[in-house]
Fold this sequence. Notes:
Blueprint: H1 3-29, E1 33-38, E2 41-46, E3 51-56, E4 61-67, E5 70-76, H2 82-85, E6 88-89, E7 95-97, E8 102-107
Antiparallel strand pairs: 1-2, 1-8, 3-4, 4-5, 5-6, 7-8
Amino acid sequence: MTRGDGIVLACVLAVALLSVPAVLAVADAGSAAALISGPAGQTETTLSDNARYTVEGREGTVVFEVRDGHLLCTSSSCADQVCVRQREALPGRPVVCAPNGVVARVSGAAAKEASLDAVSR
């Protein structure tokens, strides 16, 4: 292997390593999706368009909103309103309205901070 071969190999490796984060960012940009499941079926949507979804549950209705790239439970007919207080649905942290049998999940690249659930030194 000559000195020129080493330089070419180093350049190829540098380009490959630097392009991986860019490719992953482009691939994840439009892949965030929301799945809202209830007794009557499922609704799948992206988090890119603001919208409102009303889901009929076992004991009443649950309302979800996609707002600024986040999926939120805004109102529910259940007594305790735990689902409304759960804030936004994140990857790995669904919003659940147990009395109504409604679950909202987010998959893909939603919030970057949602990928960490703990920090340690």
